[in-house]
């Protein structure tokens, strides 16, 4: 399933629509687009830019969860949910910017692009771009304890270990390890780095893997989740990078988790 936005910024078009296409052959062919706005409404919603998840644990085992962000003034983290494998969708959790639907100033609370992952206890942890550097030049992290229906402020914190230059970043939970990738720098989009946590994000290992030293931008990480022993050894990253500008190329890398080749 691929979820995308049509006419998000209302540029020479209206209204905004949340769209969905499906593939039953690993992306070789795709269904005709479905307009989900009939179910979700026409509020602007930009999914991702990473991936959605299907919950493997209770509560709401099997639920599809796709999170994204809103408009420039009406920004925030918003999630859409499906309990029947994508046939029907409804609006779930919202973590709205402050002040909401109003122009923002520097240091306002303004959560933006995000990546959800499911933790082993069934909660959903969402790693969020801190658009206006509220409280720190680092990532916002918030958890949903009810399968994506709500994002309580009590479950929000700022991860000072994940310094960030305001960018879309990637996160992945694999075999009990939480991985995070971003340009690890407070002000510039450089130094794309992979970090990992053995404590579901409560702490991060001091070791880290530099993937690209130079200009680097948006990134996403994923893995193959078959029963194959080989698939357990690797994760994959796709990211923007360049020598003078971070948008020069898009690169893809296969990362051996145990240092082999």
Automatic annotation (TrEMBL):
Q: Which gene encodes it?
A: NEU1
**Family indicated by similarity:** Belongs to the glycosyl hydrolase 33 family.
Q: Name one GO biological process term.
A: oligosaccharide catabolic process
What InterPro entries does the record point to?
Sialidase (IPR011040), Sialidase_fam (IPR026856), Sialidase_sf (IPR036278)
User: What is the topology of this protein in the membrane according to its UniProt annotation?
Assistant: Peripheral membrane protein
Quote the subunit structure annotation: Interacts with cathepsin A (protective protein), beta-galactosidase and N-acetylgalactosamine-6-sulfate sulfatase in a multienzyme complex.
Q: Which Pfam families match?
A: BNR_2
Pinpoint the Sialidase domain residues. 2-225
Q: What does this protein do?
A: Catalyzes the removal of sialic acid (N-acetylneuraminic acid) moieties from glycoproteins and glycolipids. To be active, it is strictly dependent on its presence in the multienzyme complex. Appears to have a preference for alpha 2-3 and alpha 2-6 sialyl linkage.
User: Could you tell me which CDD domains the record lists for this protein?
Assistant: Sialidase_non-viral
Q: Which UniProt keywords apply?
A: Carbohydrate metabolism, Cell membrane, Cytoplasmic vesicle, Glycoprotein, Glycosidase, Hydrolase, Lipid degradation, Lipid metabolism, Lysosome, Membrane, Phosphoprotein, Repeat, Signal
User: In the Enzyme Commission scheme, what number(s) does this protein have?
Assistant: 3.2.1.18
- Could you tell me what this protein is called? Sialidase-1
This protein's GO CC annotations: cytoplasmic vesicle; lysosomal lumen; lysosomal membrane; plasma membrane
Catalytic activity as recorded in UniProt: Hydrolysis of alpha-(2->3)-, alpha-(2->6)-, alpha-(2->8)- glycosidic linkages of terminal sialic acid residues in oligosaccharides, glycoproteins, glycolipids, colominic acid and synthetic substrates
Question: Which major enzyme category is it?
Answer: hydrolase
What subcellular compartments does it reside in? Answer: Cell membrane; Cytoplasmic vesicle; Lysosome lumen; Lysosome membrane
Q: Which organism is it from?
A: Nothobranchius rachovii
Q: Which domain of life is it from?
A: Eukaryota
Principal location: membrane
User: What would you give as a GO molecular function for this chain, any one?
Assistant: exo-alpha-sialidase activity
């Amino acid at each position: 399933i691929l979820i995308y936005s049509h006419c998000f910024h209302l540029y020479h078009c209206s209204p905004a629509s949340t769209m969905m296409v499906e593939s039953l052959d690993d992306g070789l062919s795709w269904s005709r687009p479905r307009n989900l706005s009939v179910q979700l409404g026409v509020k602007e919603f930009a999914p991702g830019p990473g991936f959605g998840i299907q919950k493997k644990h209770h509560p709401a085992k099997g639920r599809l969860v796709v999170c994204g962000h809103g408009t420039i003034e009406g920004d925030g983290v918003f999630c859409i949910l499906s309990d029947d494998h994508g046939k029907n969708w409804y609006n779930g959790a919202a973590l709205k910017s402050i002040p909401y639907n109003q122009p923002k100033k520097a240091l306002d609370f303004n959560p933006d692009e995000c990546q959800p992952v499911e933790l082993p206890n069934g909660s959903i942890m969402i790693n969020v771009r801190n658009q206006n550097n509220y409280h720190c030049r680092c990532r916002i992290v918030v958890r949903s304890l009810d399968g994506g229906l709500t994002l309580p402020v009590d479950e929000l914190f700022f991860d000072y270990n994940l310094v960030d230059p305001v960018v879309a970043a990637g996160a992945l939970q694999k075999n009990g390890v939480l991985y995070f990738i971003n340009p690890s720098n407070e002000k510039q989009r450089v130094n794309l780095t992979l970090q990992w946590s053995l404590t579901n994000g409560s702490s991060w290992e001091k070791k880290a893997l530099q993937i690209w030293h130079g200009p680097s931008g948006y990134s996403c990480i994923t893995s193959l989740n078959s029963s194959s022993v080989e698939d357990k050894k690797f994760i994959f990253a796709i990211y923007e990078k360049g020598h003078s500008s971070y948008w020069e190329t898009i690169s893809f890398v296969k990362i051996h988790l145990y240092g082999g080749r």
